[in-house]
Amino acid sequence: MARNAGVGTRDMASAGRMLLDRERARGNVSFSTAASVTMAWTLFVKFVHAEGVRRLEHVTYELLVNYGMGLAQQVVRDECAAGYAQRLVSAVNTVMRLATKNWHCVRPVQDCGIPMRVAVRREPPSGIDPDVVERAVQSLLSNQQEAAVAVVRLCWSLGLRIKEAALLNAKSALCQAQTNGRVDIKYGTKGGRTRVVPIAHEHQLVALRVAAMVQRQGRCVIPPELDWQEFRNSVLNQARATLNACGVAKFHDLRAAYACRRYLELTGNAAPVLTGGLWTGRRIKMLGLKSRPS
Question: N or C: which end of the chain has fewer CB within 10 A?
């Protein structure tokens, strides 16, 4: 067998990229995933080249552990974030699993000593201001991006992830919301676990009605000619550019904005990310009470 897992190149970096491109062509990974893993793999290749390793077949569990331990030290020195270091190790695992069936995965935290990532948001989400979100919605509508609008509204009003919003049967969800005052989210959830979203505001029902109109006779807002990955890579990627131009950094910020409003409803206090001098108390209260976009 030729070197580098028989992929047809003598260059380790190219070998990893080609393995990921094959998975992308098969529909097993998205364009964005393949690109990000390729970038992380390239960094690892630079490390192993310095160690005298030039072939995929010579990459060992111990070598990756040493790489990860070096990343752990960078985290301690505040040279990179824990989550980033963990992703770099995980990316190497991804490529090596494609290269060999017998690869023993390295655990970034347990095996390399990389600190646990801290999932506490430190900056207010860019989708916290409903006026900003509404501008993005209107811009999307002006470009006939109705499906993207439905996803934006569902993420902002119900706190859904983009995959949850895209796969939601909005017609059934609307009926459930009107009857039971809640929506069961079944598809696109982490680990496939069903979760319940309470319906307490009119703007939530409006978001469901908009999505139901976009859905028409389909099962969700994704057009019947597209699957989830194609919808994400085309429709939602185009929408991201519009959101950015209007001041919303990413779809996930819409979900975070919902979390901030929900925190205020449950506790009577502003979410911690909104305190600390970044926002005044009056402004926080106003944003928490607004119900747009509707």
Answer: N
The model's pTM: 0.61
> Residues 115-124: pLDDT tens digits?
887 656 678 8
With 50 as the cut, is the pLDDT of residue 291 above it? no
How far, in Å, CA of 262 to CA of 273, rounded?
13
Q: pLDDT by residue (tens digit) across 88-139?
A: 999 999 999 999 888 999 999 999 999 887 656 678 888 899 999 999 999 9
